[in-house]
Amino acid sequence: MKTIQILFGCSALIVPVGAQDGCCGDQAPPRAVIRDAATHDSIVEAGRGRAVNPIGQLATANIPEEVKSSKPFKPESLIARSEVLKRGNTATLVPKRAVLHLPADLRGVMGLPENPQLVNWPDFLMQNRAWIRTVEVTRAQAEGQAPLSEAMLESFKDCRQVVVATYQTGPISVLPYVAPEEPAETANVEEP
């Protein structure tokens, strides 16, 4: 019997004193509150009251009458912005100003045929290499910031082929060269 009392007494000493709720003036830890999981609808409802519409806060625009009555921009068609090279029934589109030289005896190769079969530029060039010559230009020359070389322009005079300007093997418009204006000199004023 003494053995049972000793074991019971030792087990009472092993249990820590702080484990008992409200013992020695300690507060019991708050219990966790378990709520239902938030659903999409409950989140939307909670956010509706706080949502601000920034478009609704904008003032109305005052549009002048001349702008209201103007016609909307209507872009040109691709064919209106291009030149058409044809041979038989096949045709291809190149940008306007891409044809640098057109001999008089080849004027019939320009224009749209009756029932055209449009092909891309590389295929058309491969089929018609005999009467088309390509000249590689720089980007500055295409933009009109640098002139075409005199030797190149001289070579067009005796050429019996259609000359097409290309940039990285694709046809490109070449704007006319405009020499940059000299900036006006300003007076140099020395500070006292």
What does this structure look like?
It is built from 6 helices and 7 strands. 24% of the residues lie in helices and 16% in strands. The protein has a domain at 95-171. The mean pLDDT is 82. The chain is elongated and about 120 Å long. Strands 3, 5, 6 and 7 form a 4-stranded mixed β-sheet that branches. It has a 3-stranded mixed β-sheet with strand order 1-2-4, with no helix packed on it. The chain is an alpha/beta fold.
Defining traits:
single chain, about 190 residues, alpha/beta, 4-stranded mixed sheet, 3-stranded mixed sheet, 6 helices, about 25% helix, about 15% strand
Element order, helices and strands? Answer: HHHEEEEHEHHEE
Biggest β-sheet description: 4 strands, mixed
Query: Treating each run of at least 4 consecutive H or I residues as one helix, how many helices?
Result: 6
Span between N and C termini? 117 Å
Q: Which bin fits the share of residues in helices?
A: 10-25%
Regions with little confidence, pLDDT below 50 for 5+ residues: none
Total beta-strand segments: 7
Task: Please report which band the strand proportion falls in: under 5%, 5-15%, 15-25%, 25-35%, 35-45% or over 45%.
Answer: 15-25%
Which descriptor suits the 3D outline?
elongated
Global Rg: 43 Å
Provide the structure class: alpha/beta
What's the overall average pLDDT, rounded?
Answer: 82
